[in-house]
UniProtKB/TrEMBL annotation:
Ranges of residues in domain GHMP kinase N-terminal: 86-150
SUPFAM superfamilies the UniProt entry points to: GHMP Kinase, C-terminal domain (SSF55060), Ribosomal protein S5 domain 2-like (SSF54211)
Signal peptide: none
Superkingdom, natural source: Bacteria
InterPro entries xref list: GHMP_kinase_C_sf, GHMP_kinase_N_dom, HddA/FKP, Ribosomal_Su5_D2-typ_SF, Ribsml_uS5_D2-typ_fold_subgr
Pfam families: GHMP_kinases_N (PF00288)
Organism name: Flavobacterium terrigena
GO molecular function: ATP binding; kinase activity
Protein name, per record: Mevalonate kinase
Keywords tagged on the record: ATP-binding, Kinase, Nucleotide-binding, Transferase
Residue intervals passing through the bilayer: none
Amino acid sequence: MKGPLFYSKILLFGEYGIIQDSKGLSIPYNFYKGALKSDENPTEEAMKSNQSLVKFVAYLKQLQTEQPGLVTFNIDVLQNDVNGGMYFDSSIPQGYGVGSSGALVAAIYDKYASNKITVLENLTREKLLQLKAIFSNMESFFHGKSSGLDPLNSYLSLPILINSKDNIEAAGIPSQSATGKGAVFLLDSGIVGETAPMVNIFMENLKDQGFRKMLKSQFIKYTDSCVENFLQGDMKSLFKNTKELSKVVLSNFKPMIPEQFHQIWQNGIETNDYYLKLCGSGGGGYILGFTQDFEKAKKSLKDYKLEMVYQF
């Protein structure tokens, strides 16, 4: 048995900001993917995934009881499949900020939700918000608190524009240019990040008035501008605003940036060869980079593994 594929995602802009109602833009990233599977002779990895699914099923049972009307699953079928060794076969690295749990949540909803909203329907804002609410509750099992955006992106496989908490829409993004020098890329920090501790630090910081002021007057301002610039294909303004965003993050989100990357982050701002920003909650995993000249960025970052995400 092998289910349909669900892809990883990249939140280009909006990490942390969307908790405070900034804009956000999330795109599918087809390089990594996962599917539900069962095998006669499961590997150790598969058995570990299956054990995690056992706990997830118990959580979904509870969710159905506590929030009737939110979502109904064919729990007996799901329970049988999990008892039979079903697991999530995924190439999506965990703790890297590219949505490993989101793809799993999307796969379970797709296969076992009894009255699911499908991708083929006319996706009104109400339906998108309903899906986001369902996914937020499902994914909270993995992170403690989830916006539901990662599974939504994975499930729909469409770019999603977040205008505010209650206003999201499927978005068209400028098409890539195979000959373009500019790029959005991933830099592998080589460290696994954990979402929950990072979000906790952020929530603690929110208690500080100065931090809240910085978020509004700088972080959210530049995030919103970057989203608008990217969607309009205004690359000149995009790089100007990404540079400012990169500076704000380096000054105010230091715990989310692994220490050995503080100088590399600063170098990008000083040389203009590239600008770095958080990919997901930070603390490790991938770091997202923007450059007007990918070859130049590769030379500057020659000691690191870079993956092209989007070319323009």
